[in-house]
Amino acid sequence: VSSEELTRHYLDRIEKLDERYNAFITPTPDQALAQAREADKRLAAGEGGPLTGLPLAHKDIFCTRGIKTSCGSRMLDNFVSPYDATVVERLAQAGVVTLGKTNMDEFAMGSSNETSYYGPVKNPWDETRVPGGSSGGSAAAVAARMAPAATGTDTGGSIRQPAALAGLTGFKPTYGRVSRYGMIAFASSLDQAGTLTQSAEDAALLTQVMAGFDERDSTSAEKDVPDYCASLGDDLKGLKIGVPSEFFDEGLDAETGKAVETALDVYRQMGAEIREVHLPNLNLSVPTYYVVAPAECSSNLSRFDGVRFGYRCEDPKDLLDLYERSRGEGFGPEVKRRVMTGTYVLSAGYYDAYYLQAQKTRKLIRDDFIRAFEEVDVLMGPTTPTPAFGIGEKTDDPITMYLNDIYTIAVNLAGLPAVSVPAGFVNKLPVGLQIIGNFFDEGRLLNVAHQYQ
Ligand code: GLN
């Protein structure tokens, strides 16, 4: 088929199905068809690469030139980006066609896509349930086959958790592997771009293009990008898999735990060696994250002042009124909660007790992983404690909501790469197996995920 035919196929599905799922904030059919025709020309001329002409959806956190980039917030509902994020630019250069921008939790703060200004997204496996978050629109778009693949971002689990709850492969590379330029910042020391796909092979193909040094992001890694597809067939005999006992705590749903055990058996049969390891400070990861992430977000979100871009309140009386009402009306409750917590933990008198303390516990968590990787090649465990929960079920209780990321958050604090792969079903709902790799060991990680599929 031509890229135009393929693109039309997905655009038709978006038009038919998205009323039901609310996965897209802004579909971009005209741009998509123009890009598809361009790709067809390149292909006819014998040019282009493996991704030329393939459609994809972008999380609405990535700046896209000339297209609304809302980040799921009223604050940016009127924002049309003047430039492309590096991720968007590199994929476009590879010939990828953009189908549209997907729904997400406001400024990526959430685990259920319920904090979006544009309303919740429904999980295609059960429409009464959440698709996870914050990349919930990307997950629902791929799960409902409105897009073959989508980009996402993961600050504390926002790629892996929705991938698990929607039955997909969600891949978060090492911190610094993919440029954050043009990706609206939530918590800059944790944010990382990645993919939601139907397979690890698709993740490898996309990451190949997305990864690599970018001089416009000072934290992007100056490291060569290996050929991720080349290692996809490597034998797993002798692979050392560590299973952190702390992942199998009382919070883990028994059936979800069983699905993970079954997956471990599959690796055992492939000749891998499985041993127990320990991450003794894992229980500190949620409290540490909920100091570090809000602290960074309070600083990052200070740029939304109603002056330069984004939402501005009506008839401000004076400058202070402009700031207060623009931010008060432009941000939703979860974002306000984070900005207030973050400002508090950074304020004089509390900085040492909270922020500095969190930096120390963050190091302890990271050191646990470094020690574990002296013994094993990858770590495995559940991605989430349970399958998808009901829409509205956890919205009144932020703490219960935060605990949904208990197995994913430590990985961001350490900066490691990790992937969630579908590991079967619990009560007809998908659950994920999480595989964590060593720093910049994405090639091996993707191969380990690939062999399971
Ligand atoms: N659910 C976590 C939070 O609310 C992680 C979000 C993310 O990874 N962007 O902060």
TrEMBL record:
Keywords: ATP-binding, Ligase, Nucleotide-binding, Protein biosynthesis. The keyword Cell cycle does not apply. Residues 5-446 form the Amidase domain. Transmembrane segments: none annotated. It is an enzyme of class 6 (ligase). One of its GO terms (molecular function) is glutaminyl-tRNA synthase (glutamine-hydrolyzing) activity. It comes from the Bacteria. Coiled coil: none annotated. Its EC number is 6.3.5.7. It holds the Pfam family Amidase. The active site is at residues 59, 134, 158. It catalyses: L-glutamyl-tRNA(Gln) + L-glutamine + ATP + H2O = L-glutaminyl-tRNA(Gln) + L-glutamate + ADP + phosphate + H(+). Allows the formation of correctly charged Gln-tRNA(Gln) through the transamidation of misacylated Glu-tRNA(Gln) in organisms which lack glutaminyl-tRNA synthetase. The reaction takes place in the presence of glutamine and ATP through an activated gamma-phospho-Glu-tRNA(Gln). Heterotrimer of A, B and C subunits. Belongs to the amidase family. GatA subfamily. NCBIfam families: gatA. This is Glutamyl-tRNA(Gln) amidotransferase subunit A. It comes from Natronospira proteinivora.
